[in-house]
Automatic annotation (TrEMBL):
Coiled coil: none annotated. This is Glyoxalase. Pfam families: Glyoxalase_6. CDD domains: VOC. It comes from the Bacteria. Residues 6-112 form the VOC domain. PROSITE patterns: VOC.
Amino acid sequence: MTGAVRPTHVTVVLPVADLGAAVAFYRALLGRGPDEEPAPGLAEFELRPGVWLQLSTGDAAPEVLLGVDDLAAACAHAASVGAAPSPVAAEGPVCWSTLTDPDGNRLALVQLTTD
């Protein structure tokens, strides 16, 4: 499908109340610890190449992050199919736009940028 969003990677974000307990559970379930702990309150498990589970404390909401190579094109395509992407935000080497599907599930289109 021309113009379709083609994710380069996928991250499922799960909010957790107690990161230590959540990491212990997933460590037992998956047989290993997290691959990354990129910031306080975050732990990430790479389930297979390009597929990540992120455990997050704080005000995180369940969310699916779809990595893309061209955020502007992905947002334009999302808008063309009836989604309403948010204005692009950026922090460090990451920029993103959020939207919801027809059932209200939160998605984020994410692009890594180079400095």
